[in-house]
Design goal:
The chain is α/β, with parallel strands linked by helices and 417 residues long. It has 14 helices and 18 strands. The radius of gyration is 22 Å and the shape is globular.
Length: 417
């Protein structure tokens, strides 16, 4: 494929998909998008850490060939004001795997969030957020080490689908009339109206991905989070379709929580993944009080949005929360925080959110040794209270270092491992 501004590295192989599986050579080409604002601080720092860990893990046998792609302000500079160039989307599809820093949503009429556009254009239907505790990280919980969950949040449906009609508009009046006259609905005269589509296709592909992840990563349970007691035909249907996909497609390896009690006296049979469900509001409480009971979580869009930030706060906050947006194979890993413009270019912020998103990426391509080295180095450095400003204000007696200095400390720990 010929590109106008994307320079593909001279060496390396694109990630391919064969028989539904990723094929990654020892010299893959992976895409990276620097990101706006603090992207200039965190992305180069993370690339140094990732490259050091790859070198340490594989001693030159494996190496990533990075291809820079452009979105956001940097893209606008390269592509004559275009923040969302078609070429970048083509390159992500072509390379299959990419990682991105945060992107500014330009303020003003007519600009959609670039992140939302990216998810929708590439149909990245699953937002995946692992939430786990690293030793030394400041946490409000008594036993934060019990938190080790991976949230699969549906990314395309629900009240985020954009089906909203403002109070007083002709569209709103038309819909209100239909609902009142044809459907017998009753609501206040000036109500703004929104529609919450939840489909079996959307629900099943999300739950399928969550269960497959649980299988691939030896996880013990998948919990369907919903508010089906109130919204029976949307949230309740998500729960129903979730159980269906578990039974129909993974019946050999899954068992429901009810079956564990009714047929196995509360003991999970060896090798089985338990499928259970919890109502969304109680889920927030349970993740504070009994996080050890939960492993993989599958949620719809809105519940997952709230839940993933709340859980991130239990184990260090947005500065270190990792994430990815994934389709069946194409995956874009990303820092979960924004561009923090007041810190841009100041070499101050915590690079760990992007760094751990990179770890997810290396796990995804089958290079877990990179993640293991980085996680061990992180615990060592943070354990010595060598931290960026955000952790320094929470940890007494810490040594505050800049973004680049934190990366240096991690690289030193990796090289000594
Ligand atoms: P933000 O950029 O996430 O920053 C909010 C605050 O979070 C910062 O002021 C800082 O808190 C803390 N923070 C963020 N990243 C940090 C890091 N790496 N290390 C330490 N602390 C960090 O949110 P925002 O100010 O609401 O949004 C700014 C822009 O980012 C907007 O244009 C928004 O659209 C965009 N955004 C993009 C994404 C994305 O690309 N995925 C996500 C969210 C927002 P303190 O000031 O307390 O230190």
């Amino acid at each position: 494929m010929g590109y106008k501004h994307v320079q593909m590295p001279e060496k390396g192989d694109k990630v391919r998909i064969e028989n539904g599986r990723l094929v990654v050579t020892d010299q893959p080409i992976l895409g990276f998008i620097e990101g706006d604002g603090i992207g200039v601080d965190i992305t180069p720092a993370c690339m140094r850490v990732w490259n050091a860990a790859i070198e340490k893990a594989y001693g030159g046998k494996r190496c990533v060939h990075w291809a820079e792609l452009y979105l956001g302000e940097k893209a606008a500079g390269v592509y004559d004001g275009d923040y969302f160039p078609e070429e970048t989307l083509d390159a992500i599809k072509d390379l299959t795997v990419a990682i991105k820093g945060p992107l500014t949503t330009p303020v003003g009429e007519g600009f959609r969030s670039l992140n939302v556009s990216l998810r929708q254009t590439l149909d990245l239907y699953a937002c995946v957020r692992p939430v786990k505790y690293y030793n030394g990280v400041p946490s409000p919980l008594k036993k934060p080490e019990e938190v080790d969950a991976v949230i699969f949040r549906e990314n395309t449906e629900d009240v985020y689908a954009g089906l909203e009609y403002a109070s007083g508009t002709p569209e709103n009046q038309k819909l209100a009339k239909f609902l009142r006259q044809e459907m017998g609905a009753d609501f206040f005269e000036d109500a703004g109206l929104g529609i919450k589509p939840i489909s079996s296709i959307g629900s099943k592909r999300l739950v399928r991905k969550a269960i497959q992840y649980a299988i691939d990563n030896n996880r013990s349970s998948v919990t369907l989070v919903h508010k089906g007691n109130i919204m029976k035909f949307t949230e309740g249907a998500f729960r129903k379709w979730g159980y269906e996909v578990a039974k129909e497609e993974f019946g050999e390896i899954t068992i429901t929580e009810d079956e564990v009690w009714s047929e196995h006296n509360g003991q999970v049979p060896e090798g089985k993944i338990v499928i259970k469900d919890r109502i969304a509001d109680i889920m927030f409480q349970l993740m504070l009080l009994r996080p050890a009971e939960f492993d993989v979580l599958a949620t719809m869009n809105l519940n997952g949005d709230y839940l993933s930030d709340a859980l991130a706060a239990e184990v260090g906050g947005m500065g270190i929360a990792a994430g990815a947006n994934m389709a069946d194979h194409v995956a874009v890993f990303e820092a979960t925080h924004g561009t923090a413009p007041k810190y841009a270019g100041k070499d101050m912020v915590n690079p760990s959110s992007l760094m751990f998103s990179g770890c997810m990426m290396f796990d995804y391509i089958g290079w877990p040794e990179v993640t293991q080295l980085i996680e061990a180095a992180f615990e060592k450095v943070v354990g010595q209270k060598v931290v960026t400003y955000d952790f320094a204000r929470l940890l007494d007696g810490s040594t505050k270092v800049p973004t680049s200095g934190f990366a240096d400390a991690l690289i030193e720990a990796i090289e000594r491992a």
